[in-house]
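forwarding from the other thread:

> can someone predict this with adenosine-5'-diphosphate?

sure thing
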Amino acid sequence: MRNVLKFGGTSVGSAENIKKVSKIVENPDVKLVVLSAMSGTTDILVKIEAAAKANKKTEIVSNIEFLKSKYLTCIGDLLKDKKSATDYINDTLEQISTISTNGFSDGEIQARGELMTTFIFTEYLKETGRKAELLFSPDYMFTDKSGTVIQEKLSAMKDATSDKDTIYVAQGFICTTSANKLGTLGRGGSDYSAALMGVAIEADEVQIWTDIDGMHTGDPRYVKGTHPIRMMSFEEAAEMAYFGAKILHPATIDPCRRAGIPVILKNTMDPAAEGTTIGDEDQSATTFHAVAAKDEITLIRISSARMLMAYGFLCKVFEIFEKWKTPIDMITTSEVAVSLTIDNSLHLSEIKTELEELGTVEIEHRNSIVCIVGRMDYDHSGISARIFKAVENIPVKMISYGASHHSISLLIDTKYKVATLQSLNNNLF
Ligand code: ADP
Ligand code: ASP
Ligand code: MG
């Protein structure tokens, strides 16, 4: 087997946890290990970028000192020979300090966190007697002007990982941009890196190792009594990730689904726990599997008598969203009105002005989409009744059902999110 294993920030967040990771990757099936930065690092690097833009020098210095102490403590607790890792961390932090005063492009500072963890981890693997090689992901992971990854370039990773006795280590999250600078794939993007690398090296499995025992029925940060799900289909997992399940970056599933590579979610803190296997349809699956929620949703309602019995009206509406490059998430229509939701309000005022030429426009902010995923075959009765019963005390603004066999979405005011998630968890699972 050739497996790709990705470990997130908590998994590499201390010397103790890095030792756990090294035990897990003793398995001979592990070909490539993809790492995030130590937990909290990227948040600090984002702060340094902001401080640099605002010319707040003392803030830059104090944040760099914080990172220095965090990483040197880790090296102190982990490595016998500390010299080259210490030099590497000092050099990297020096580079951050220099570019924060001399100018940098977007993500150039953030990208350095993953470089630090992968260096330390590779040193540790070598000290424990492993044949390990550190790869520099931006030599393979390139994005074009629109920020899209160029998969053809990434395929060179296959040859770069061909030695059968070597375990390879690479950074998640980071890339080379179209301007030939260090950049990132966006927050939480290490999962996506691992998926793309898994496709590139023709992996048998992509394993995402984190701090929880797999995908739960609901978001454990808000909901009590959730439990892990053993198996999920690619479609369900993609919907969960898109609609806010933080455990997976939303873009992770698609490349693996296309290549037919299963994605396994596992817990670094409890490797024996089964975790969640995401693959083709699970025929034994029950109706309801899990619920996720996505915040910062704006509802737009357009009413117009001109819509009555007319064709071409929706086309005009969609053209406005296309022009302003704003994706629509949910949509419902009646004879004389259409309601839709967006999560990117950057061009809301331009969109509103143009929609007003078509009819009366109402806008409501601070909504959440709650997405229930599972196997909801159209010939099953009672599915919607169970959901409506569970949310009978919640004012629901929109419902989307029938677009796929895999999900039902509700739009609610964000103030009802926790109550909605809890009630669905209590009643559906
Ligand atoms: P990593 O740093 O390893 O990438 P993340 O913090 O990005 O980890 O993702 C793991 C977290 O996702 C969990 O600790 C949990 O709080 C959160 N999470 C949100 N929704 C779910 C869900 N449905 N199932 C499991 N975890 C979830
Ligand atoms: N370190 C990056 C972040 O915190 C990427 C990741 O962890 O997936 O967003
Ligand atoms: Mg993550």
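The radius of gyration is 24 Å. thats all i got for now
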